[in-house]
Design goal:
The chain is of the alpha+beta class and 250 residues long. It is built from five helices and five strands. A hairpin with a 3-residue loop joins strand 4 (129-140) and strand 5. Helix 2 (10-63) packs antiparallel against helix 3 and helix 2 (10-63) runs antiparallel to helix 4 (153-203). The mean pLDDT is 80.
Length: 250
């Protein structure tokens, strides 16, 4: 059975037609999952940063600038929480404490509520990677500034995983859809070929040819049964006509 004939069948085209909205549904579902999860990650990150800023602001209010410098230095040191970024600067933006060497160049202006975004390079040599940082700026009396942020590497990693998963899911969906279309088309075409072969047998003069049944009771079996009954009747009539012709010949 030639593959070109399978691709031209209505079953194959219909299966591909249904595959298009199904693939679209997969994309929509993953897009919703993507945006909802990223929104949740952003919300949790913002809440963590704001809680940290409030805690440091309370330290400053209760104990002054010297105590704030000590706390920021401790939290940004080796024993601090991984992924958290701190920077306390003077009015001239000279660093007083924190794990950033200098005040970052932000990708955008500081929002009214103090949120900024910037990138930092981490690593050494060929292993240097750029990390996205989301942070909030807290201004202190006298022109001092406190920046508290979080490394968004987990967010970026999740985004990459979702993109790969979406591509994989779409690939699997398309492959299964095409495979299913080919299977259905091949099965349908084999049933049609059985009817066509029986027709060719009858045309060659063999009235004993019949359409094979699969015993499934489907519409093809019902059609084949009707065709076989018709062929039985035609064969019976032709046999009767031969008998009459033979009688007249003698």
């Amino acid at each position: 059975m030639k593959a070109g004939r399978i691709f031209r069948t209505s079953t194959f085209r219909l299966a591909l037609l249904y595959l298009a909205p199904f693939g679209t549904l997969v994309v929509v579902l993953f897009a919703v999952l993507y945006w909802v999860t990223l929104g949740l990650i952003d919300s949790q990150t913002n809440a963590t940063i704001e809680a940290e800023v409030r805690g440091l602001a309370e330290q400053y209010s209760a104990h002054g600038l010297a105590r704030l410098v000590e706390v920021v230095a401790a939290r940004s040191g080796p024993n601090g929480e991984k992924g958290t970024v701190y920077l306390l600067t003077g009015p001239d933006l000279h660093p007083l404490a924190g794990n950033l060497e200098s005040w970052p160049e932000t990708r955008n202006t500081v929002s009214r509520d103090g949120w900024i975004g910037f990138d930092v390079d981490r690593g050494s040599g060929d292993a240097v990677t750029s990390h996205e940082i989301r942070a909030k700026v807290f201004r202190i009396e006298g022109g001092f500034r406190l920046l508290v942020g979080r490394d968004m590497a987990e967010r970026a990693a999740f985004r990459a995983v979702i993109a790969k998963t979406l591509a994989f899911a779409l690939g699997i969906t398309m492959a299964l859809g095409v495979a299913g279309a080919l299977y259905l088309s091949r099965k349908l075409l084999s049933r049609v070929e059985a009817v066509a072969e029986t027709s060719r047998t009858i045309v060659r003069g063999d009235l004993a040819g019949r359409v094979p049944l699969q015993g499934s009771g489907d519409e093809f079996d019902r059609l084949s049964t009707s065709l076989n009954e018709m062929l039985d009747q035609i064969e019976h009539l032709m046999t009767g006509m031969r008998a009459v012709t033979d009688s007249l010949a003698h």
